[in-house]
Amino acid sequence: MTSTVEMRLELIHVPVSDVDRARDFYVEKCGWQLLTDHVQMNDMRIVQICPPGSGCAILLGRNIPEISDMPVGVQKGLHLVVANMDEAVADLSGRGVELGEVQDLGGVLYCRFEDPDGNSWLLQQWAEGGFPHE
Known about the structure:
The protein has 134 residues and is of the alpha/beta class. Helix content is 16%, strand content 33%. It has helices at 19-29, 85-94; strands spanning 11-13, 33-40, 44-50, 57-62, 78-81, 103-105, 108-114, 120-125. The radius of gyration is 16 Å and the shape is globular. Residues 8-126 form the VOC domain. Pfam families: Glyoxalase.
């Protein structure tokens, strides 16, 4: 019998035009945790943030080989699974984040928002609340 090697997704890149503006949006407006913000090798900027409760951090950066070649605003529909859509919407809107309308797609709720560069996020609440992997 063969086993599968565990592979955890722990970092994704979100391409932005202004690292400071994006960091401030995610940390100050969305309330996400700033994990690191530093410059290395003269002008390579690494900013990592993490949504509350997530095991996957977000990389915002400048002059990162290959990664910084991605066009700005191309990440679309990144999912943030929440246990309670009403609470998540109230939290973000209370912080000044502009959100779309909550949509019910067969018992699964979605609500969209964008960062200043047009990268889009979807809050998702599974039917019956809760998370599908618990």
